[in-house]
Amino acid sequence: MTASGRWALCWLIELGNKRETLAFQPPTQNTDLDDILELNMSVSDQAWLDLFRDKTNKETIRAFPDDELGQHPDWKERWNKWQAAALNVIKPDGQQDALAKHKLKDITTEKEAAIRPPVQRHAAEATATNEHMQKAAPTENLLNDSALQQKLNTALYGDKTWSDAPSDESKLFKGAATAAGPKSACEGSTQNKKAVTVTAALLCICTRQNGAGSNEGNACEYVTGTTQTWPGSSNYPAAAAISEAVKLCDLQTKHHITADTLATKLLHITKLIMRVNGAATFGKTTKANAREAKTAACV
């Protein structure tokens, strides 16, 4: 295994613990549509505004009245948006404040009536466009920074809330260790694999085996070698070994990430997966009796 395996895994680990943010931030709300709906509400006639007023407290917005407006199911779907648009408009001086916001402070009653139909059409078109976009790309399908960070931490550490460096190996590996050394933990099929996180994979290639005649630690740190060893008993690496492996990666630099950059990082890993005789190994293999050194290493 050459240092390329360590680098490929580290390129992912370096994104953990909130070090990455999306290069493009999805808007928290459609402010353009909100403004259009508010403008439409501010030039609406009094009868329309009164539909949104609570019967008792006239300055309070009411929930959709099924008994009164149940014959308009499409209104119910849009009521929340309309409520938000009417919220400030129905307050004392709210209509005038909204008109002033849209540079219509001194509009006459006649001009207000004249612009009402085109504003209503504009609001209807904007609403229809927004609804079409929501169906084509639902908001819940868009990742924000928090959701992305949780997904990455789960893949890296087995827990969406973990930080560097995890001290509990139980979430890095699946199930209990069944034998001494890395072989039983790092080899397996899709159904019975134990190394189920990126950090576990890093431990598998960068942690020196206890009692080994050669120094696997040089495979990832060829200057001094890693010092922690994989336990000789039926256990996974302890906190010190986990910390040492993770600290081989850059845990300081912040990153702005896109789908393309993440795909590139994953491609570096998949290129290191080699299929041999119906199995797959991570990294390069050799038939020679190699030993870990500055120039070469075995899987």
- Strand order, main sheet: write it out: 1-4
Order of helices and strands: HEHHHHHHHHHEEHEHEE
Total beta strands: 6
Overall tally of structural domains: 2
Distance between the termini: 4 Å
Radius of gyration: 30 Å
Q: What is the overall pLDDT average?
A: 83
The major pleated sheet works out as: 2 strands, parallel
Protein name: Variant surface glycoprotein
Domain Trypanosome variant surface glycoprotein B-type N-terminal: 8-299
Pfam family, one: VSG_B
Function: VSG forms a coat on the surface of the parasite. The trypanosome evades the immune response of the host by expressing a series of antigenically distinct VSGs from an estimated 1000 VSG genes.
Which structural traits does this protein have?
mainly alpha, two-stranded parallel ribbon, 43% helix, 6% strand, disordered C terminus, single chain, elongated, 299 residues, 2 domains, two-stranded parallel sheet
Describe the overall structure.
Keywords: Cell membrane, Glycoprotein, GPI-anchor, Lipoprotein, Membrane, Signal. It is built from 12 helices and 6 strands. The model is unreliable at 288-299 (pLDDT under 50). Helix 1 (3-13) runs antiparallel to helix 10, helix 2 packs across helix 6 and helix 10 (198-206) crosses helix 11. It is elongated. A hairpin with a 2-residue loop joins strand 5 (273-276) and strand 6. The protein has 2 domains: 3-24 and 144-282, no CATH class; 31-141, no CATH class. It has 299 residues and is mainly alpha-helical.
